[in-house]
């Protein structure tokens, strides 16, 4: 086939048609990706998204939802501007999950006594413990909060030893842990 368009002559062979289709497909896919990114930026207030990782002396901390801050806000408290520094210092001192020994991504600093009930202990290093929040382990949620973010575990240090190295499924299946969950404190002072 031969087409004339504004003094340009193209002879369309099967290879030419295949190349044109491939180019159009690539352009279509790129337009879709760019459009998705622009929609995300509009929804998030225009800020570009980052990788979700923050560096801390070779260890990386996953950016995650801050359940402690959310709970504290419900009780009229905000995180101290010093919290990030204190959390990093704690991880330098205790760089592994006390419930499994995991080091690296997924570590979180947990308040033994929740700071929404004890705001004076938010930055106290004696009130902090390192737990991981990884798929299949969930030690922060299961041992630190007894499977409910708004709750807390007064025996978190002992339970971290008791369930050392156990998976989330093994912990949930444990009769002693199930009894603790049944008696767990709510997110209010007791």
General description of the model:
The radius of gyration is 26 Å and the shape is elongated. The longest helix is centred in the first third of the chain and has 30 residues. The protein has 190 residues and is an alpha+beta fold. The protein contains 7 helices and 6 strands, in the order ββαββααββαααα. The strands form 3 sheets. A two-stranded antiparallel ribbon has the order 1-2. A two-stranded antiparallel sheet has the order 3-4. About 9% of the residues have low confidence. It has 2 domains: 42 residues; 130 residues, no CATH class. β3 and β4 form a beta hairpin.
Residue stretches low in confidence (pLDDT < 50, at least 5 long) are: 46-62
- Global geometry: elongated
Q: What's the helix count?
A: 7
Span of the ends, CA to CA:
84 Å
Taking the sheet with the most strands, its summary is: 2 strands, antiparallel
Number of DSSP strand runs: 6
Order of helices and strands: EEHEEHHEEHHHH
Binned, the helix content reads 40-55%
Averaged pLDDT: 82
How many domains make up the 3D coordinates?
2
Structural class: alpha+beta
> In percent, how much strand structure appears in the residues?
5-15%
Radius of gyration: 26 Å
Main sheet: which strands, in order across?
1-2
Write the layout of secondary structure elements.
Layout: E1 2-5, E2 8-11, H1 14-43, E3 53-56, E4 59-62, H2 67-74, H3 83-93, E5 107-111, E6 128-132, H4 139-144, H5 156-162, H6 168-173, H7 175-182
Antiparallel strand pairs: 1-2, 3-4, 5-6
């Amino acid at each position: 086939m031969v087409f004339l368009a504004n003094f340009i002559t193209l002879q369309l062979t099967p290879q030419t048609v295949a190349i044109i289709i491939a180019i159009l497909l690539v352009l279509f896919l790129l337009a879709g990706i760019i459009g998705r990114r622009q929609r995300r930026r509009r929804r998030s207030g225009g800020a570009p998204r980052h990788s979700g990782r923050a560096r801390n002396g070779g260890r990386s901390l996953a950016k995650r939802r801050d359940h402690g801050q959310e709970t504290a806000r419900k009780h009229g408290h905000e995180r101290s501007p010093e919290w990030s520094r204190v959390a990093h210092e704690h991880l330098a001192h205790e760089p592994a999950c006390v419930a499994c020994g995991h080091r690296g991504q997924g570590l979180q600093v947990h308040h033994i006594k929740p700071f929404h009930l004890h705001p004076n202990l938010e930055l106290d290093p004696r009130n902090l413990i390192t737990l991981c929040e990884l798929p299949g382990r969930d030690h922060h949620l299961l041992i630190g909060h007894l499977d409910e973010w708004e709750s807390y575990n007064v025996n978190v240090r002992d339970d971290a030893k008791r369930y050392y190295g156990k998976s989330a499924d093994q912990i949930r299946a444990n009769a002693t842990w199930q009894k603790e969950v049944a008696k767990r404190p709510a997110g209010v002072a007791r």
